[in-house]
Amino acid sequence: MGSAGFRRSGVRKGREPTIALINIVFLMLVFFLVAGTLTRPLDPELRLVSVADLEGVAPADALVIRADGGMRWRGEVVADVADFVAAQPEAGRVRVVPDRALPAADLVRIGRALRAAGAGRVVIVTERGL
């Protein structure tokens, strides 16, 4: 038995998949650039509302939580969360405006206490939402 007819192929090097990966990334980039420019332009006569002079004030019916955890509603101190929820005209929804320096753990604790007291939905009002 000879080795006639059988060729021994050398060790084949695997192709580098980086070229294919670069092509896919490039095609995705082109797709998102094209998709982003295909939106309809706004009506040229439309003038958007300017909020540059708008004063950001918390809504009057929101529960304000200070950085130290103290709570106020319409300027009055709130000592008991259950009494606060019971006094709400909309028992299903409570709006909360937390101080930026309030620790997140305290905000979660107060939110859970509001839900346990009967608030169906707790909405946190942020700076952009004002």
UniProtKB/TrEMBL annotation:
Which keywords are on file for this protein? Cell membrane, Membrane, Protein transport, Transmembrane, Transmembrane helix, Transport
What membrane topology term does the record carry? Single-pass membrane protein; Single-pass type II membrane protein
Coarse class of the primary localization is membrane
Q: Where in the cell is it found?
A: Cell membrane
Which GO-annotated molecular functions does the record name? transmembrane transporter activity
Which family does the UniProt entry place this protein in? Answer: Belongs to the ExbD/TolR family.
What name does the UniProt record give this protein? Biopolymer transporter ExbD
